[in-house]
Amino acid sequence: MRMKPLFIAASLTLAAALVGCTSDGTFKMFSSDYGARADAGYQLPAVPIYKVDKKYHRQVVRYDTDEKPGTIIVDTANKFLYFVLPEGKAVRYGIGVGREGFEWRGTARVAMKREWPTWTPPSAMIGRQPELAKWRGGMPPGLTNPLGARALYLFNKGGDSGYRLHGTPEWFSIGKAMSSGCIRLMNQDIIDLYDRADTGAKVIVL
């Protein structure tokens, strides 16, 4: 007996639900995880996540790679960061990347992790923006600090690369090229990544 198209469609929908994966390869969305929260003595404000394109919301997706779980892969062209999970999955985060002239590619490792880090602008940045000279000795942690709630410090064979994976109070910059080369995530996302990533983790920037 020939099955009706409606029956076939219903069967496919049920099958997708049973394996927990939608037709676009998403296993789980975390759109409700961007509310206000207390964190290490700071009151982190909510992100108006409805204003952020849904593709940049944190989600578990299908992701095939030969890299081992725990590896971080940064897709600068599509503004995504992937934290590799077992079984062909990854946590995908929306990111902001370096503006034109500040892009970079390569492989590094997470050498240090810091909660509510101090931000010290590089001398080259102070040269471009003299008003930052007041922070030459470091800008204290806080809700307006450019590094946000967490920072992962990237080192390569030459030592400190100068680049970071970090949070940002500027949630509206996610999906855009606005930084001086660092990879920025919404604060709620960098907290999640910070808790998942180990010191020494491999980071690949495509």
TrEMBL record:
UniProt-recorded Gene Ontology molecular function terms: glycosyltransferase activity; peptidoglycan L,D-transpeptidase activity
> What highest taxon heads this organism's lineage?
Bacteria
Ranges where the L,D-TPase catalytic domain occurs: 70-206
Q: Which controlled-vocabulary keywords does the entry list?
A: Cell shape, Cell wall biogenesis/degradation, Glycosyltransferase, Hydrolase, Lipoprotein, Peptidoglycan synthesis, Signal, Transferase
Q: Which SUPFAM superfamilies match?
A: L,D-transpeptidase catalytic domain-like
> From which residue to which does the signal peptide run?
1-16
GO terms for cellular component:
extracellular region
Positions annotated as active site in the UniProt record = 166, 182
InterPro entries reported for this sequence: LD-transpeptidase, LD_TPept_cat_dom, Transpep_catalytic_dom
Which Pfam family is an annotated match for this chain, by its short name?
YkuD
Instruction: Supply the CDD domains for this chain.
Output: YkuD_like
What pathway, per the record?
Cell wall biogenesis; peptidoglycan biosynthesis
Q: Is Zinc-finger tagged as a keyword? A: no
Q: A GO BP term, please?
A: cell wall organization
**Entry-linked PANTHER family:** L,D-TRANSPEPTIDASE (PTHR30582), L,D-TRANSPEPTIDASE ERFK_SRFK-RELATED (PTHR30582:SF24)
**So what family is this one in?**
Belongs to the YkuD family.
Q: What is this protein called?
A: Lipoprotein-anchoring transpeptidase ErfK/SrfK
Q: Which organism is it from?
A: Pseudaminobacter salicylatoxidans
